[in-house]
Amino acid sequence: MAVSTTGEGPGKGSGRRFGLALAGGGPLGGIYEVGVLAALDEALDGIDLHEMEVYVGVSAGAFIAANLANGFSTDEIARIFISADSRQHPIGRWIFLTPAWREYLHRIGKLPIALGSTIRDLVWHPIDKGVFGALNNLTRMIPTGIFDNRRVERFLADLYQTRGHTNDFRKLKRKLFVVATDLDTGEAVRFGSTGYDQIPISKAIQASTALPGLYPPVKIDDRYYVDGALKRTLHASVALEEGVDLLLGINPIVPYDASLAEDDPRRKHDRLMDGGLPVVLSQTFRSVIHSRMNVGIKSYDTAFNDRDIVLFEPDREDSRMFFANLFSYSNRRRVCEHGYQTTRRDLLKNFDQLEAVFARHDIRLRRDVLEDQGRHFDTNMHVPHAVRQRGLLKNKLTNRLSEALDRLNQNI
Description:
The chain is α/β, with parallel strands linked by helices.
């Protein structure tokens, strides 16, 4: 995992306005982000990840960001979506992997028109169109998505109807922006902003996570929307424009560098070409979106040079993240643990640099937590959030008492 910072904050603000931007990355990326957030939640003293001023979510990141903005703590999110042991909100792979039967039937219904157009072109335009040109009419029958994302929307709508939560952007205590892409214009749309805040949060997430080919486009009013990552990866500028002093960003998708992973036993291929088309497409997609994100991050040095941005990403040689099965629901615990442990490792590795950054915003990076080798995602997740917070408060009070006694001894 790479940790990078930019800016010299705090700027003109109080230094205490915090934001969180979560990028996409499919189901696997969202699960990885939960592990990263769990590590940050316990290592940072002076910031609550579910009580920040601004949240921005794209694709799978919208799933996680919206739940934090809605008041769910990281351990509650983990119980619902990772361990799936929440009795109140049971969830299974059918929520994400139900075939899009309605879309299939809709496409089959186009068979007569598509077939008629093909025969007409073959008969009347055999030279101009050619065989392949005529057969192109049949492509309209290909489904726009494999799985049905309406179940995802219904699950979230039910989740947000529980006490203390809401499915209305306007009723949230914190600002939430869910980014999707307008299919017909290619422009990014910020659900939660003025003019788009009347859309239910669950519907906005359904649109933002509609990865083409995986889920069908989502119709909202008279427009169709797809995955928000098609335009940008992180959309960090959305939070920065809202005036946050410190922005935490998580991007689970980075291009893979096989040359750095030569000694990794999990590496599946000497050359990515050996993995076939899926591996080649994955590397291409990762390279394009990561390059785009780097350009955006560099531009913030000029536009927002009085702010601090801390970005968390997997390592370029991380074979586990690159070759993991995107659809393996049983893999989610291992992916979470991986995100959790690599975040702890790199927080400790970059401790001196990050300690200074966080200190500018009255946040303490806890070395004692990071050096505790006995911590794991699963064991930490089952410690109630309130108990953890009481433990943090106890440590804080103990530290203050020790400092007071030290000053007293010096004066004696």
